[in-house]
Amino acid sequence: MKADLTTKIGPITLDNPIFTASGTYGTGKEYSQYISLSQLGALVTKGVTLDYRSGNPYPRMVETPAGILNSIGLQNGGVDYFIKEEIPHLEKLSIPVIVNIAGRRLRDYEELARRLSEQPAVKGLEVNVSCPNVREGGLAFGTNPRLVYEITSRLRKITQLPLIVKLTPNVSDVGQIALSAQEGGADAVSLINTLLGMEVDIWKQKPILGNIFGGLSGPAVKPVALRMVYQVYQRIKIPIIGMGGITRGEDAVAFMLAGAKAIALGTVNFVNPKAPVQIKEFLLDYMEKQGICSVEELVGKAHRKG
Amino acid sequence: MYLTEGLINRQEQLAQDIFLLEVLAPQVVGNARPGQFVHLGLSTTYDPLLRRPMSIFNVDGDVFKILYQVVGRGTRLMSQFTRGDVIDILGPLGRCFQTHEGKQILIGGGLGAAPLIFLTRKLWQQGYHVHLLVGMKDNELAFLQDEVPEGCDMCFSRESALESPRMVTELLPSFLEMEERVSIYCCGPQAMYREISRICEGLENIKAQVAVDRHMGCGVGTCLSCIVPVRRGKRREQVYVRACVEGPVFDLEEVVLDES
Question: At B60, is the secondary structure helix, strand, or coil?
């Protein structure tokens, strides 16, 4: 019997547990030339804000050992543009579409949730309270448990859509933040967003990134992300979407064993557009070899005593 | 555009740190246009992590050629490929040079001139008379002459020379007789583009295009890191567009050039 990859995040049933990480996949159009998007479990869009944002100055990305630092600064056309220009393409997809939303103030998030809840193509919201690259909002919310509770509970009252709160690793106790999201009514949490970092050009003798600081991602951050997923799993009951430096099937399995019910691929898409398909194949093969019928059996297995 | 594999056909060291790489990849070559790039995967271990965007220097049969200088980890790895090795290719990518009628002037600065060789060949095949102007430091790019079809005019400038022309842009004004239309295609540093922009200012009948060099992430338009500030629309407001999709070739008049 073929191993079963289906899983659920809140009310969303997924063909497989592989998500795209916000900001690394646009709305999927670009990559649809290289892989069939129906191979994905779900597509998470680039962050959408209420108004148009031009983003941060160049340079926005720098390569680091086994990773990249980025400071894009949420460049996007705003929610009106998104609904007009992106939704028609998203409506045609056979997989669930989750829209990542980011705001400066609480009421930005509320307005975004209201607007996007009216769109049948949108099957869930990922609440970005963890962007390290904009001055206002984002990270300022995500590092404060009280604000995470506040924002989640307010959105809970506004929308029926599943809410996934995206957590930052730039805190001392990520479990506490996850707990606040759960108490606020989140359906799931996703982690980790990028780790705040910087790089200096020693010949120009100044920071490389136009925004000085950026978020670190890629294989370099995987052990940190894995540890945080493991910690959060011990604190909350709602599902975890694990991400951070996953490049191959082995990484995906490790995240699931640590407690992730689904995993998301980010930076790896830039390098290897076929990664989602290759990871899916590895999962099936691994489960068969291990005699596991359902992928859900893997979730949290690394926590078992003895 | 394709996600495919190419077979290394030849790797040749042409000068100190300057290499020529030939890759057999029929699909890529069949669709490549001058000014486009290929995004090369150099490591299967994800370290270095990112692909490297390389502009296409020329094509020959089913082979495309990359002319590059070793400047860092990526290009050093590239220089270690040998005949028979397999390389991961995404491409061809990006917006190519658009051909405009009129006198055809191609201006390149240093190794950045590489894509103009491909363009020279294409324009020559279309029956245009091509003027190719290349600036170099000393004499390190003289070999480019062998890549240019007969009948094309090629001039060099040398920074090390004691008298003019030291900079390639000094060669430009004599080509700009205003009675006729002129199409200028530029590949080089931003300082060169600023000077060309200054020379062409106020002159009509000139269409100038530039290829913009950017560090890239995905190469296909999703990561938004290779942005170029341009002025577009009726109000000519500055917006960021992607070098990998809307570029790397832009109209000179729309690009907001770097200050430094």
Answer: strand
What is residue A130's predicted lDDT score, i.e. its pLDDT? Answer: 79
pLDDT in tens, A120-142: 999 999 999 977 666 665 677 89
- To the nearest 10°, the Cα dihedral for A168, A172, A176, A182? 10
Query: Could you tell me if B257 and B229 are in contact, meaning their C-beta atoms sit under 8 angstroms apart?
Result: no
User: For A69-105, how does the pLDDT look when each residue is reduced to its tens digit (9 = 90+)?
Assistant: 999 999 999 999 999 999 999 999 999 999 999 998 8
Q: Count of domains in chain A?
A: 1
- A296 in any annotated domain: yes
Chain B residue numbers with beta carbons less than 8 Å from the beta carbon of A272 are 41
B218/A30 CB distance under 8 A: yes
Complex prediction ipTM: 0.93
CB contact (8 A) between residue A55 and residue B1: no
Q: Tell me the residue range of the domain where A82 lies.
A: 7-56+73-202+216-303
Q: Is the pTM of this model over 0.90?
A: yes
Residues of A classed as catalytic: 131
Tell which residue, A112, A176, A110, has the closest CA to residue A143: A176
* A2 located within any domain: no
Inside any domain, residue A210: no
Interface test with A, best of B44, B240, B245, B260 (most A CBs within 10 A): B240
Of A58, A62, A273, which has the smallest distance from its Cβ to B227's Cβ? A58
Rounded to whole angstroms, the Cα distance separating B97 from A256 reads: 48
CATH of the domain at A194: 3.20.20.70
Task: Look at residue B259 and tell me whether its pLDDT is greater than 80.
Answer: no
Decide if A25 is inside a domain.
yes
Which of A24, A68, A268 lies nearest to residue B222, judging by beta carbons?
Answer: A24
Please report the DSSP string for A72-92 in residue order. Answer: ----B--HHHIIIIIHHHHHT
